[in-house]
């Protein structure tokens, strides 16, 4: 082989080596590109996994919220059912109460023992009143026994009634009107003094007018008793209180207590209570002791339907 041929072979070898080297560099470049692509894809995968995990977490939270809301809805429905049941029971009880109220008497039952009874009058709510057996069948409408109740009251208070039905009280003018307008009533008044003396006055046709008529004492009927007739002077007289002067003189009620006055008069059972029984502006029934200085320490006014 000539030198020329050797050189040619060497040149060809070097060119082949260069081609191989270039090809190798190109492959390395491609490998690096692939590596970068793979790395980029891995990064994208990691981000996607994080996002997926985040979405899953959010979805889990939402599912827990939905579950919690469903439980709350269930609890609310249970509560609503319980409330509806309670409402239904209360409505039934109210209906029964109304039926019971409708069956209440309009006066004290005759023959029943002493005690507090519920009474229902047309147009008024049921109320409690003491019922007496001596005499029988009477409803107590006013009581004075110890001075524990203030009887110096306004028109509205006398209209509605006040006090404690187990102690001192006034039943109310409106109730008296409703009771006595429906049918004739008897009035029985027990009286007592500080020394223990007792007496009574009875009227067989007691009737009170309406508020429009200023609760006029429209009728009394015939008197009977031991204390004397001090009330007939009040017949056809309007009721007066400290704030409503309906008599023909000065305001007698302001001085002597609320009552049916003409020009003051011989009786006033709502006057000031004097425990020692001595007071000219106290609880008065003049025809009994024939003096203004005796103030009664016990009074019970009672009514009952005349048919009893």
Task: Provide a compact summary of the structure.
Residues 24-100 form a coiled coil. The protein is an alpha+beta fold.
Output the keywords.
ten-stranded antiparallel β-sheet; coiled coil; Gamma Fibrinogen, Chain A, domain 1; rod-shaped; 2 domains; alpha+beta; two-stranded antiparallel sheet
What can you tell me about this protein's structure?
This protein is α+β, with helices and mostly antiparallel strands and 308 residues long. Helix content is 41%, strand content 21%. The protein contains 5 helices and 14 strands. Strands 1, 2, 3, 4, 5, 6, 7, 8, 9 and 14 form a 10-stranded antiparallel β-sheet that branches. Strand 6 and strand 7 form a beta hairpin.
Describe the sheet with the most strands: 10 strands, antiparallel
Measured distance between first and last alpha carbons: 166 Å
Beta strands, count = 14
Pick out the low-confidence regions.
none
Coiled coil: 24-100
Protein name: Fibrinogen-like protein 1
Organism: Drosophila rhopaloa
Keywords: Coiled coil
């Amino acid at each position: 082989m000539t030198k020329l041929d050797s050189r040619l072979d060497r040149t060809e070898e070097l060119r082949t080596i260069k081609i191989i080297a270039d090809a190798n560099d190109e492959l390395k470049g491609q490998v690096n590109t692939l590596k970068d692509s793979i790395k980029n894809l891995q990064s994208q995968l990691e981000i996607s996994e994080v996002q997926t995990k985040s979405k899953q977490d959010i979805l889990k939270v939402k599912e827990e919220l939905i579950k919690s809301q469903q439980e709350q809805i269930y609890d609310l429905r249970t509560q609503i059912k319980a409330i509806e049941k309670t409402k239904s029971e209360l409505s039934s009880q109210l209906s029964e109460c109304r039926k019971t109220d409708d069956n209440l008497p309009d006066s004290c039952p005759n023959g029943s023992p002493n005690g507090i009874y519920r009474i229902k009058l047309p147009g008024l709510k049921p109320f409690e009143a003491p019922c007496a057996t001596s005499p029988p069948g009477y409803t107590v409408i006013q009581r004075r026994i110890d001075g524990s109740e203030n009887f110096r009251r306004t028109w509205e208070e006398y209209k509605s009634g006040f006090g404690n039905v187990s102690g001192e009280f006034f039943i109310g003018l409106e109730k008296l009107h409703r009771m006595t307008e429906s049918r004739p009533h008897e009035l029985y008044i027990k009286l007592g003094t500080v020394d223990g003396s007792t007496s009574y006055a009875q009227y067989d046709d007691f009737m009170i007018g309406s508020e429009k008529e200023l609760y006029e004492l429209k009728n009394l009927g015939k008197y009977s008793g031991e204390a004397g007739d001090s009330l007939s002077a009040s017949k056809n007289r309007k009721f007066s209180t400290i704030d409503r002067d309906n008599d023909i003189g000065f305001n007698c009620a302001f001085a002597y207590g609320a009552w049916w006055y003409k020009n003051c008069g011989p009786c006033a059972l709502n006057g000031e209570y004097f425990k020692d029984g001595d007071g000219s502006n106290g609880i008065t029934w003049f025809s009994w002791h024939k003096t203004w200085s005796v103030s009664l320490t016990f009074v019970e006014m009672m009514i009952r339907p005349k048919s009893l």
